[in-house]
Amino acid sequence: xxxxxxxxxxxxxxxxxxxxxxxxxxxxxxxxxxxxxxxxxxxxxxxxxxxxxxxxxxxxxxxxxxxxxxxxxxxxxxxxxxxxxxxxxxxxxxxxxxxxxxxxxxxxxxxxxxxxxxxxxxxxxxxxxxxxxxxxxxxxxxxxxxxxxxxxxxxxxxxxxxxxxxxxxxxxxxxxxxxxxxxxxxxxxxxxxxxxxxxxxxxxx
Length: 205
Ligand code: HEC
Ligand code: HEC
Ligand code: HEC
Known about the structure:
Blueprint: H1 2-32, H2 70-74, H3 88-93, E1 116-119, E2 128-131, H4 132-136, H5 141-144, H6 160-164, H7 185-188, H8 196-204
Antiparallel strand pairs: 1-2
The protein binds heme C (3 copies).
């Protein structure tokens, strides 16, 4: 009888150990992909599925099967390393895509504003360069101003935490524009900090 109880608790212990190991392993995958908690972001193999399988369109609708599958539509685009694996900025630049800027007027042209805003980042990450040009190729000023950003340099408080929660840049990035992954940090954090080595040389002189 005693032996049995002992055995049972040993069994429970090993189940507990397995559970801890499992938690630990999921913990690691969370750290590897900062967006893995975001249930709106699909896994790589679930991305760009044909319309009948994407969970958005009516899988039984007659028209659904006639829609062009994204993988086919994207095959000619410039590739990227995250999101839906299309570099939309380069694809537009290279004329792979020719979007309409006005639903009714096929000749309408976007108002492109070429103004970079540098946001200095404390710590070792390179500074963030927010480029108006690439955004206004796709978007209207009113998509961001004033609801998401007050149009004044430094007037907005932006942090990585708020972006990952879907605010500020995260209103779009991670949903309709490239997401935050280890492969995309440098697209935003693109301005290296002034080199320390140079400063040292200057001090020595
Ligand atoms: C995708 C979002 C987005 C779009 C679209 C956008 N902006 Fe901005 N804009 C920003 C951000 C971010 C800043 C920087 C705010 C900060 O530093 O706090 C900014 C800053 C500005 C500033 C302040 C510049 C300064 O030096 O103080 C002006 C003016 C401005 N935008 C005008 C416009 C106009 C005009 C358009 C349309 C042609 C436009 N923006 C489109 C995001 C956007
Ligand atoms: C969509 C653009 C974008 C991407 C992608 C991005 N960041 Fe940021 N990051 C920002 C902005 C904007 C700030 C705020 C800068 C400021 O203080 O104004 C920021 C701030 C930071 C900071 C400073 C502390 C904080 O939370 O504000 C760190 C550290 C950081 N980012 C790390 C990362 C890492 C690591 C990655 C890749 C996993 C990454 N960022 C990807 C835009 C981005
Ligand atoms: C209203 C939507 C929206 C917001 C808000 C927004 N972006 Fe974007 N961003 C886009 C779109 C759309 C693109 C082009 C598609 C893509 O690259 O995924 C883009 C592209 C970019 C690019 C790539 C430019 C290139 O040359 O490839 C950078 C860098 C960037 N965004 C940074 C930021 C930062 C930093 C913020 C916050 C200060 C921000 N974005 C806020 C929609 C947005």
